Amino acid sequence: MAETDGLNAAQAAAVETGASHNLILAGAGTGKTTTIVARIRHLIRNGTAPERILALTFTRRAAAEIRSRVQTDLSQRAGSVAAMTFHAWAMREVRTSPDVFGYDGWSVLDQDDTTQVMRGVLGRGKRVEGLKAAQILDVLSFALNTRRTLAEAIRVKFPDDAIDAKAVGAAVRAFEERKQERKYLTYDDILRVFAARLRDDAVAAWVGSHYDEVLIDEMQDTNPLQWQIIDPLVPHTRFYCVGDDAQSIYGFRGADFASIHSFGDRVPGASVLRLEDNYRSTQEILDLANWLLAESPLDYQKRLRAVRGRGLKPELHSFETPQDEAGWIVSEMLRARADEPVVDPPHPGALELLGPCHRGAAGRERDPLRVLRRREGCWSRRMCATCCPRCAWSRTPTTRWPGCGFSPWCRAWVT
């Protein structure tokens, strides 16, 4: 099967491009992951060794999906394609080459352990300038990932609070000393160490020589620290980056969406291709999105087209609170459900067809609508049965199917 089978012309061109560095500007619903997977298959079928391909994502789930979809067609040949997060990649490089990075015998702390170390520095239950241990770590992480000073990060994170940066800085210094004493590294430290060593061109050339092509998904969500890893490697390997220049969801972690707009300047000779055929939305929704892009001071130079064709016009609804918004969503769900014919509950074996809400604890794939408010330690009883597929089939809010349980996802009673 050819990698371009089933792709549109723009996707096929993106898959087969021969440029050294590529930026694929892909709007929402245009098949970003499909294009990345097809590109990896194309490289392998044209002689690139799977182990010399690296795909970087922002979540482990996205990395697993890429690996799975590549292997579906190429089976064992694709088993050694590395698909992982930036943190996992940096950790692998640092741990497997202690002679290069110099951190042999150090332990990497997860988020919970990192918080416990900071609490130990502050003292049990204590705060600095009103900030808990987790809040101080959040500010520190933001400072590291955006390459800002701690004082600047505090002003960004708490613009309305008068926080003494020196007091917070003292706590951070004590935290860093504690990590040094005990040979601890955090996830952010791993990126920082990796980026620092790549400033040595010999080290960058050595790391870059491991890969024929590095693919990066959701390029718009990269932050300045991650760019300090990318920049030194540009002369030593090929980059294939896919992202949407009109969105960014990781600003709270320091993502700089402007970096995707300056990609051509930062990566000399890069080819920029666009995916504009949207498979998710109707044209009326895309017309609104296109209008917003046209009104932006940024030059997007793209126009999304709906493969699905025409649909209903979008409606604008304003709400004073998130609870009001949630209540309206629930009422619309109930109204839509009232228009459907009543059917018998499905056989238990068919519940998997109802969506990911009840895949079970092992799958961790739940996607319900959380519309409840906390009140006196309990969930406010404003939730409709439609949030839970098992309960919704009964069409009776007080009826729960066996095994539904009382998790926050499934509390489906209405008074």
How much is the average pLDDT? 81
Q: Which bin fits the share of residues in helices?
A: 40-55%
Shape: globular
> What structural class results from the helix and strand content?
alpha/beta
Strand content: 5-15%
Order of helices and strands: HEHEHEHHEHHHHEHHEHEHHEEHEHEEH
Distance between the termini: 56 Å
Query: Total helix count?
Result: 17
Report the radius of gyration as a whole number of Å: 25 Å
Number of strands: 12
Biggest β-sheet description: 6 strands, parallel
Q: If strands are numbered along the chain, what order do they take across the biggest sheet?
A: 3-2-6-7-1-8
What ranges have pLDDT less than 50 throughout 5 or more consecutive residues?
342-415
Structure description:
By secondary structure, the chain is of the alpha/beta class. 42% of the residues lie in helices and 10% in strands. It is built from 17 helices and twelve strands. It has a six-stranded parallel β-sheet. Strands 4-5 form a two-stranded parallel sheet. It is globular and about 60 Å long. The C terminus is likely disordered.
